[in-house]
Amino acid sequence: MRVLFVSVNSSTGLSSSLSFVHAHIYSNFLKREVDVTILLPLDFDKSSVYPLLLFNDGQDFPALNLSETAARIQHAQEMRPMIIAGIHANHRRIDEYGTAIRADYAGRGAEAGATTSFVISELLPFLNEQYNVRLLGNAYAGFSLGGLMALDIAWNHSEQFSVAGIFSGSLWWRQKAIGDGYEDFDRIMHAQIRETAAPPRLKCWFQCGSNDENDDRDGDGVIDSVQDTLECIGEMERKGFVWNKDVFYTEVAGGEHNPSTWGQVMPQFLRWVSKVLD
Questions:
Q1: Backbone torsions φ then ψ of 7, nearest 5 degrees
Q2: Are strands 32-39 and 52-56 parallel, antiparallel or unpaired?
Q3: From edge to edge, which strands make up the β-sheet containing 247-256?
Q4: Contact yes or no for 56/150 (Cβ under 8 A)
Q5: For the domain bounded by 2-276, which CATH number is listed?
Q6: Along the 278 residues of the chain, how does pLDDT read in single tens digits?
Q7: Alpha-carbon span 218 to 223, nearest angstrom
């Protein structure tokens, strides 16, 4: 890994948005330059150690109004100081996000293992060196396929990421197509949770919108994204996770699969993260 370029916006104080840095990092694992947006907390002091809230799809920060939302909540002292960083995806997103354990039935997500290695072995050390981000006990979140990727990394690297946020997660991710005899046990993340002998210590926040999609593969009146999310939580409960203690669920009435809905619930999520991070 090498840092290619860093640009800085230096707004501070009572600004309506947080100071930010754009870093361009070459990843030896992904074999490409990775753009990362880094939001610095109010009164950032490099001599202090900060927890990290990492997001996939950092290119969507403007659409989420994330910088403005985080600044408002920090000004209100409803959020602890933390570094917020977002990994930008590119045209290879469908290959780089997924579950590291296996690709889906169409071969998508085949590079998810490389993304995991980038996050753990390249990005975290960079953020630690440059911004004094702690290496353990951080939070990881994402949207749609990025939410699945965040959960997968947190599940398998819970020392580094003890908190996960999954917004409209692609928990349908499966090893068999619907038309090829698909059954619910073909969902890859559900199976990984079910087959984990010693589940990690992890707190997870799941979100779905009631209009996240229209598909209802089993015709039970519950859209697939909600069903897949609730049944993923069910797998976790069977492993000992406790509802509203270890796993939390927010369903947005009329919410859709887009940054507008995710931005709507972002204040709630940021306050929750601030409370549950050790």
A1: -120, 145
A2: unpaired
A3: 2-9, 20-27, 32-39, 83-87, 52-56, 138-143, 161-167, 203-211, 247-256
A4: yes
A5: 3.40.50.1820
A6: 455 445 545 444 446 788 999 999 999 999 999 999 999 999 999 999 999 999 999 999 999 999 999 999 999 999 999 999 999 999 999 999 999 999 999 999 999 999 999 999 999 999 999 999 999 999 999 999 999 999 999 999 999 999 999 999 999 999 999 889 899 999 999 999 999 999 999 999 999 999 999 998 989 999 999 999 999 999 999 999 999 999 999 999 999 999 999 999 999 999 999 999 98
A7: 9
First-to-last alpha carbon distance for the chain, in angstroms, is 29
SS (H, E, C) the chain: CEEEEEEEECCCCCCCCCCEEEEEEEECCCCEEEEEEEECCCCCCCCCCECEEEEECHHHHHHHCHHHHHHHHHHCCCCCCCEEEEECCCCCHHHHCCECCECCCCCCCCCHHHHHHHHHHHHHHHHHHHHCECCCCEEEEEECHHHHHHHHHHHHCCCCEEEEEEECCCCCCECCCHHHCCCHHHEHHHHHHHHCCCCCCCEEEEEEEEECCCCCCCCCCCCHHHHHHHHHHHHHHHCCCCECCCEEEEEEEEEECCHHHHHHHHHHHHHHHHHHCC
The rounded distance, in Å, linking the Cα atoms of 242 and 246 is 5
Q: Which two tokens stand for residue 162?
A: 């003890």
Quote the CA–CA distance of 271 and 257 in Å, as a whole number: 22
Cα–Cα distances in Å, from 134 out to 38, 82, 174, 237? 15, 10, 34, 29
